[in-house]
Write a structure and sequence with these properties.
InterPro entries: Peptidyl-Arg-deiminase_porph. With 349 residues, the chain is α/β, with parallel strands linked by helices. Helix content is 26%, strand content 26%. It has a single domain, classed as L-arginine/glycine Amidinotransferase, Chain A, CATH 3.75.10.
Length: 349
Amino acid sequence: MSSQRRFPAEWEPQAALLVAWPHETTDWRDTLTAIEPVYVDFVAAVAAVQPVWILCQDAVHLIHVSDRLEQAGVDANNIKPIICSFNDTWIRDYGPITIIDADTPRLLDFRFNGWGGKFEAGLDDTVNARLAGTCQFGGAVPVALPQILEGGSLETDGAGTLLTTSGCLLGASRNAGMDRAAWEALFAEQLGCDRTLWLEHGYLAGDDTDGHIDTLARFADPETIVYAGCDNPDDPNHNSLLSMAAELQALCRRDGKPYRLITLPAPAPQLVDGAPVPASYANFVIINERVLVPTYNDPADEHALEQLQKAFPERDIIGIDARAMVRQGGVLHCASMQIPQVVTTDKTS
């Protein structure tokens, strides 16, 4: 492991937030009128404090997106539309994972196969290389790696500790034959993380990702973990989340002390055609000055916002109605990838 290599935490300064705007050839094609207002609200909340880079399918789509944001009064100075075709909007899982190596950004470009071959992902798998080809990353060139790994499966404290789930990483549909030891060696070598905490439990019904950590448990600082709870025994997620809570309570920080744990409530089950989708308040996004939180027009929304204010006392906590977004299986964190501030400095690789 390089002693100078570090996987920065999401709460560290950001140059931009990267999103991919829904279009007619994504799974949003039949619900564009419902989902676009969510993206307008989401982008507006980000653009108020930092730049947003928006992937657009083509020139016509770029004009459409720009017009929608202008009509909503979004600050155009913080909007950077980029033509770069893609299959799916969940850019957390195929966007670049930024590592800082001796103060220089190192963009890791892992393979993406549509969550174990569940969906077409040929365009998504090449987005990072195409963005780098047009110098979108300030000259930093993505490092192509052969392993299949999704950004939503990783949580870091920025100080060498990684939190993840065995259900996702050890499944055969992504990297058959890779065991815990192989993953931990990879994390140490490529991410500079010498300590991996594995969760065996925690699953949300309807989740296509096989248990991404970013819908379950998140670092708020090196000593605090915020996690999805559920106190309703009739909720289909209750037993799994209860077991996960017990695991989190048993985890220790690097100094041997227990983590400070903050529980998020569970919204009422969200259903699409009678089937559950993975609604979670844990899929929040940390940006400069703010934390953006998915809400569901649910009585639990207010409590979730209050709990996250405890976790991030120095940031504004802002709810974004994500009911239309969760219908496709993800919300705000899934739909975005932070670009750390170091990417746009003069120290590029």
